[in-house]
Amino acid sequence: MTERSDELVFRGGTILTIDPDHRVLAGDVACIGGAIVQVGGDYTPRSRDYTIVDCAGCVVMPGLVQAHVHTCQTLARGRADDMELLDWLRVVVWPYEAALDEAALTASVELACAELLLGGTTAILDMATVHHTDAVFAAAERSGIRATIGKAMMDVADPQTPARLREQTRSSLDESAALIGRWHGAAGGRLRYAYAPRFVLSCTDDLLREVAHEAPRRGVRIHTHANESQGEIALVRQRFGKDNIAVLDDLGMLGPHCCVAHCVHLSADERRRLAARGAHVCHCPSSNLKLGSGICAVPELIAAGVSVGIGADGAPCNNNLDGLIELRLAALLHKHRSGARALPAPEVVRMATLGGAAALGLADQIGSLEIGKRGDVIAIDAHPLHTVPTASPWSAIAYAAQSCDVRHVAVDGTVVVRDRTLHTLEVKRVRERARAAAVKLFH
Ligand SMILES: [Zn+2]
Q1: 278 CA to middle of ligand 1, Å?
Q2: Whole-angstrom Cα distance, residue 174 to residue 151?
């Protein structure tokens, strides 16, 4: 059902390039064989095998990149409201993940990917659950999304963790290595692997040390959580006698290949360590607010030299996976403390695209519309009344646009959403399967 022509033209929009000069151009974005060959001006197809997508009245920009999501958790949407992080994990999310079989997991990931693509998110860094990670990759592959996925690693013998999620150190590492072999670079490079130790409290020192050693050797990312809530931070200090980022750093986990979700409560020393190692942070404003965790000091992180991306986290802590809501929240949230000039529209749009791409290690391939990059392109309609008049496309995207305004989406030069219709998965079937699977899980 996907439209796979050799040439793809997003025709006649206002283009936010997100290039180093933040240029705004008019005209076409054209791809050949999945790679961008022209940005702006009029493009004439060079062959007969082309698709033209009408983008008149649209803002055309790189797809949103979410640097922290859990597509495996989508069926628990609305099941874990108004709870603090550690209770949220122990009472609802871990028992839910323990109960997932392959069919339920597939329904969850398809639901997530459909929602993400229809909302303009073209790439994700996804922490799966402990088991059935092949099903997560397979569903992501079918959906057409660009995904860097890792099985959650949890080898600490914590009595509060369901037995089914408790792993042996060796088998967790071996399974990760096998998944790298099967999926890293699959689907023409659209699927990649990331080691995903859940957080330091779920993992032994041995496992974390081995991940720190193996990830750069195998050329894959590390994706973890840290400094999310005060309760978690207190437990980390109790076990290790030091701060969370110091623990990760001393174990060798931090580097340009590492993305740490949340980082809500950081000392100046922790910020310095993240910057010195070139580690990325994923800001998850909705999740941090809903779990009562706090607000990540993003302006201070950026001032310290840390690259920041944005993510919706999971459906049970958000409760949706809407990249534009996260973008708007990130743009608004820091003005209260840091003043109205904090995170202006172009900076936050850049964070939601190129910042995420950098966190995925793909800044040379996606995150901006530049010749030679891959064709991950979205068109957002600027006709709806809530974006009229469109004084500035930056302002429209950061403050006014909604995910239902996303009109067309292409990943790797292939159209996956056209005129708000998903072409890769059947939305009606995705909805029915998700509802049925949730009823079975929560009966
Ligand atoms: Zn998370």
Answers
A1: 21
A2: 11
Ligand 1 center from residue 248 Cα (angstroms)? 17
- For residues 260 and 282, the answer to whether their CB atoms sit within 8 Å is yes
For residue 73, how far is its CA from the centre of ligand 1 (angstroms)? Answer: 10
Cα 317 to ligand 1 centre (Å): 9
Interval between CA 157 and ligand 1 midpoint (Å): 21
225 CA → ligand 1 middle, Å: 6
Q: How far is the CA of 325 from the centre of ligand 1 (A)?
A: 17
Q: Cα of 126 to ligand 1 centre, how many Å?
A: 9
> What is d(CA 33, CA 403) in angstroms, rounded to the nearest whole number?
28
Plot region of 263 (φ>0 → left; ψ -120 to 50 → alpha; else → beta)? left
Please check whether residue 203 is in contact with residue 197, taking contact to mean a CB–CB distance below 8 angstroms.
yes
Q: How many residues does the chain have?
A: 443
pTM exceeds cut of 0.90 = yes
Residue 108, SS3 per DSSP = helix
In degrees rounded to 5, what are phi and psi of residue 10?
-85, 105
Which amino acid appears at position 226 of this protein?
A
- Let me know the angle formed at the C-alpha of 367 by 199 and 24, rounded to the nearest 5 degrees: 145
347: left (phi over 0), alpha (psi -120 to 50) or beta: alpha
Say which residues have a Cβ less than 8 Å from residue 350's Cβ, sequence separation at least 6.
Answer: 18, 22
The rounded Å distance from CA 285 to ligand 1 centre is: 12
d(CA 186, CA 121): 20
Q: What is the pLDDT along the chain (443 residues), one digit of tens a residue?
A: 455 789 999 999 999 999 999 999 999 999 999 999 999 999 999 999 999 999 999 999 999 999 999 999 999 999 999 999 999 999 999 999 999 999 999 999 999 999 999 999 999 999 999 999 999 999 999 999 999 999 999 999 888 899 999 999 999 999 999 999 999 999 999 999 999 999 999 999 999 999 999 999 999 999 999 999 999 999 999 999 999 999 999 999 999 999 999 999 999 999 999 999 999 999 999 999 999 999 999 999 999 999 999 999 999 999 999 999 999 999 999 999 999 999 999 999 999 999 999 999 999 999 999 999 999 999 999 999 999 999 999 999 999 999 999 999 999 999 999 999 999 999 999 999 999 999 999 98
Ligand 1 mean position to 372 CA, how many Å? 32
If you measure from the C-alpha of residue 6 to the centroid of ligand 1, how many angstroms do you get, rounded to a whole number?
Answer: 37
Rounded to whole angstroms, the Cα distance separating 229 from 201 reads 13
